[in-house]
Amino acid sequence: MRFARIRIWPLCNLRCVSSITLSLKCETASGTDYARVRMLIVSTKHIDVAAECIPTHQLLNVAGERVPDRELDHYVAKLTESDLADFLRDMVVLRRLDHEATALQRQGELGLWAPLLGQEAAQIGSVRAARDSDFIFPSYREHGVAWARGVKAEDLLSVWRGAQSSGWNPNEVNIACQQIVIGAQTLHAAGYGMGIKFDGTDDVAITYFGDGATSQGDVSEAMVFAASYQAPVLFFCQNNQWAISEPVALQSRTQIADRAHGFGLKTWRVDGNDILAVYAATQAALAHCRNGLGPTFVEAVTYRMGSHTTADDPTRYRKDEELQKWKAKDPIDRLVKYLHVIGADVQSYEQRAQNAADDLAAQLRAAITAMPDPAVGELFDNVYSEAHEPSTRAREGYLSYLSEFEEEGH
Amino acid sequence: MATTMLKALNQSLRDALTEDEKVVLLGEDIGTLGGVFRVTDGLKKDFGEHRVVDTPLAESGIVGAAIGLAYRGYRPVVEIQFDGFTYPAFDQLVSQLAKLHYRSRGRVKMPVTVRIPYGGGIGSPEHHSESPEAYFAHTAGLRVFAPSSVQDAYTMLRQAIASDDPVIYFEPKRRYHEKAEVELATPESDSSPKAKVLREGDDVTVVGYGPTTYTLMDAAQAAEDEGVGLEVIDLRSLDPLDIDTVAESVKRTGKLVVVHEASRTSGMGAEICAQITESCFDYLEHAPLRVTGFDVPYPPSRLESHHLPDLDRVMHAVDTVMRHHEATEGAAK
Q: Which keywords has UniProt assigned to this entry (chain B) (predicted)?
């Protein structure tokens, strides 16, 4: 029986079998050992697990060739060449934003930065599939999601500079403040989704989080709540393989997508460096939510090519070969290759994207280096929304204390 | 009408649900059962399952979902079933609910009320008798209310629900069956209740809140029999703390005793004594004293009568500040 388990899991993960029949064919083709395993499996519960293993969808392979996918093809059928060029521009500009932010941190203009290098397709593909009225609850790395919704790059970076606690008005762009406590925002999405259901609209609450977050109790609780009330919530997990120094295997011994399935969520697993697959799966998940069929989960399998934050040194815990392996799957290269495959004028699209990136970088740098520190009174602003006497006294006391120095001419 | 605190709370929730369709109730067993104490009795039947929501058994989930509902424009009222079960929700309360208004620079309001039946004296097992109020009074961004009377239970809950700030609302569960006349008044226009002088006196200021105010009123009667006048102050709101009302009283009496069930170290009593010492030092005739639960985990219920401040321990502290005897080491704790 132990032997059977050892054999079935690699098969499941590597080949992503989607049905019992396929699974058994694979094994049969591999020799008599597998045939024997097959018989054992049929007689155990493990065959159920194997059969339910969520497949990984891919619409563009590493060579940039379009791979047919019966379930998801429909969702990209209407994308035009111009849409693809926009995806390219978004990803190129976002990568530049990330690069500039990292540089600004190194130059002392930002206190910290959490790079998203490598996750451009996962972020742009998913947010471009959503409606503006869908409300997003992000973690601290979803810079691309906020930027794509219209948040200015300098407003994004102002928080990482320490100039303000939030760079945007959540009610204007329908994105909550970035969340630093791992997984805490998923519960807010569950509650928001309950509110959408009470209101009877077809909006969706979308929450972003990483593979590490799936170990947090809050994420499990959020899936329980969303499932119990059949709330329209999309749980979008960017499995970037690493939670600072801890590999995804430490968070989950099964595919993350399989765990979500266990909570009763309709689940997709996609190649997160394939922007078409991400876009399509997100569309499918959102449609499911809008149709009142309950919460959904998308696991986008991607890779954090940079450090966890600018304070991190990934060379201490992962090998360069791994990074090189994932560089070969780069999401931007992949889309460029596909544009070549379909005969698009790639050079002009790349030039346009590069110009947009240059413009953003120049404007961002100027804005950040000129950004003033907040006025000292802001220290006390907005702790409460209504009158709070002790808070008022603390403000007045401190401002009066400071004014004594001014009067003395210090 | 004369009613119990339980029924007053129920009526308060009922009136809030009636007046504002954005008010929703969330909690474990609050719907079909009506809550383990029956505070929400009948509300699901009258307002529907989308207004009075039975939740999965996950406190962090309950508070987190309430935050999401507030983002959506709702005004959630959460019930944590017992005080000791608040801690699984600690992050959502302290790092999320308390800070979102500040974090969002005032753009996101969190009008969430978290009702917590708290305190001991009912003979319960562990985790059912705790007084965790100081954690939340220590956290900027939260308001902390602790009603003691039946009237306040009604009025202050309306006030908490009407507030655009998050309010942790501590209900003195061992006083749930107290009965009194209640006026179904609309909430005060202030965002938080002020401290109230329950009984005037010239000799010693005694300060409490929630379940202990009843003990303080008994002490005032006992002291009067001995010719000592206690001024009894019910704080009502622990954050913001209406220290002015306490200070005005101490400036007349020169003596202060603070009483609570929660543990002594870094509790509300420590804060009140510190603030009064800072502002009334020249008026004090004796060091302020605290009569509190001990610095122990809440004990087995057969020991709780020793842990909870009772009439004798309060009177002992009163005698000490009156210098009727020298302080006995440990007794006034």
A: Oxidoreductase, Thiamine pyrophosphate
Whether A11 and A133 map to the same domain: the answer is no
Q: Are A127 and A238 in contact (CB under 8 A)?
A: no
Q: Are residues A47 and A137 in the same domain?
A: no
**Which domain range does residue A30 map to?**
2-53
pTM score, two decimals?
0.92
Say which of B61, B103, B190 has its CB closest to residue A225: B61
- Residues B66-89 have pLDDT tens digits of 999 999 999 999 999 999 999 999
Question: From the candidates A199, A382, A391, A393, which should be mutated to test the interface with B, based on the most B CB atoms within 10 A?
Answer: A382
A164 within a domain of the structure (yes/no) = yes
Shortest CA distance from B99: residue in chain A:
A383
**Looking at the predicted structure, is the pLDDT value of residue A19 above 90?**
no
Of A109-123, A132-146, A239-253, B179-193, give the lowest mean pLDDT range. B179-193
Residues in chain A within 8 Å Cβ distance of B103? 165-166, 177
Catalytic choice (B128, B260, B307, B316): B128
* B237-266 per-position pLDDT tens digit: 999 999 999 999 999 999 999 999 999 999
CB A132 within 8 A of CB A174: yes
Residues A245 and A294 in one domain: yes
Q: So what's the pLDDT on residue B188?
A: 64
Q: Are residues A402 and A301 in the same domain?
A: no
Measured between CA atoms, the residue of chain A closest to residue B194 is: A389
How far apart CA A272 and CA A298 sit, in angstroms, is 10
Contacts of B72 in chain A (CB under 8 A): 135, 191-192, 195-196, 199
* Maximum alpha-carbon separation in chain A: 92
Domain membership flag for residue A61: no
Choosing among 3.10.290.10, 3.40.50.300, 3.40.50.970, 2.30.30.30, the CATH entry for B2-181 is 3.40.50.970
Q: Is the confidence at residue A16, as pLDDT, over 50?
A: no
| Whole-number Cα distances in Å, A202 to A198, B43, B71, B218 | 11, 28, 17, 58
Interface predicted TM-score (ipTM): 0.95
Report the alpha-carbon distance of residue A152 to residue A387 in Å, rounded. Answer: 32
Q: Indicate whether A62 belongs to any domain.
A: no
Cβ atoms of B125 and B301 within 8 Å: the answer is yes
Peptide bond between residue A55 and the one before it cis (omega within 30 degrees of 0): no
Nearest chain B CA: its distance from A236 CA (Å): 17
